[in-house]
Specification:
single chain; alpha/beta; 12 helices; 7 strands; 14% strand
């Protein structure tokens, strides 16, 4: 069981998540990851939270919550089955916004999802219902992003809340699932990777009313200029993805996201104008 290896590394202070200074009482007061994650799940107020990016949606009258799991296989469970090498390297090596992806809270949340699935889903359903009610009281609309740092299929959750009026959305590298999501209440934005062939898939999706996103220049002016180049080349609308996180408002558009945190433009995951022109010719 790989998660037991993670548990042992955390106890020794040798796991990636121990770089973050945060209370680890659940890790130190319990004997096993099963006990620790259950205690965390019973003690936490909500398993969905917020970030600097999703808060921007309130300007557009959307009250949004996001859920962060420990990315890739950091918890011992693989939550990013479609991750590319560059995606893995940058996600596990940097932080963005108000979140450090590698925290032990994210590990505990992931363990609780896999080790206490029924209780996890009960608490998740309650959190989504509470969000919907809060949005009504505030005269806003509710949205939930369940894959803040993962790429799992949450169709079963969305189905349970199909009549709630809550909008669900995520990013994914699963092209087939992104195509299937067009026109549904689970809007999936296809994430263009370092692989050149992902461009063809992304543009295909956009031309059919879906959304694709690409990480590009840190400099806003360079990012805007690159976005214009893409619009002219492919004949599609381009949106600035840094304005908000509400990707379901960008249907039929290619979204540019500036590189953030410690992610460098030399990263293979970041597409600059120069890199694109070398590949596209």
């Amino acid at each position: 069981m790989k998660y037991m290896n993670v548990w042992n590394l955390i106890q020794k202070g040798r796991h990636l998540s121990t770089r973050r200074r945060e209370p680890i009482k659940y890790m130190t007061k319990h004997e096993t990851p099963e006990e620790a994650s259950l205690a965390w799940l019973l003690g936490t107020k909500s398993i969905i939270g917020t970030s600097a990016k999703v808060v921007m949606g309130e300007f557009y009258q959307w009250l949004t919550k996001v859920m962060y799991l420990a990315p890739f296989n950091l918890s011992g469970f693989q939550v990013c089955p479609f991750a590319t090498p560059a995606c893995k390297k940058d996600c596990l090596g940097h932080s963005a916004g108000n979140l450090v992806f590698q925290g032990q809270t994210e590990v505990l949340r992931t363990w609780s999802y896999y080790l206490h699935s029924e209780l996890f889903h009960t608490k998740l359903d309650m959190a989504i219902k509470m969000l919907g009610m809060e949005a009504v009281v505030k005269g806003m609309q509710a949205a939930v992003r369940l894959n803040g740092s993962s790429d799992l299929d949450w169709s079963d959750v969305i189905e349970r809340h199909s009549e709630s009026g809550v909008q669900f959305y995520d990013y994914t590298k699963d092209f087939e699932r992104a195509v299937a999501s067009i026109g549904t209440n689970y809007h999936l934005t296809y994430s263009i990777s370092e692989k050149p062939e992902s461009w063809e898939k992304g543009i295909y999706l956009v031309q059919r009313g879906g959304t694709a996103a690409v990480v590009t220049h840190r400099n806003k002016k360079k990012a805007a200029a690159f976005g214009q180049l893409l619009s002219d080349r492919f004949g599609v609308g381009v949106a600035d993805g840094d304005r908000h996180d509400l990707r379901f408002l960008d249907k039929g558009k290619l979204v540019t996201l500036t590189a953030k945190g410690s992610m460098k433009e030399k990263s293979k995951f970041v597409w600059t104008r120069e890199q694109f022109e070398k590949v596209a010719g």
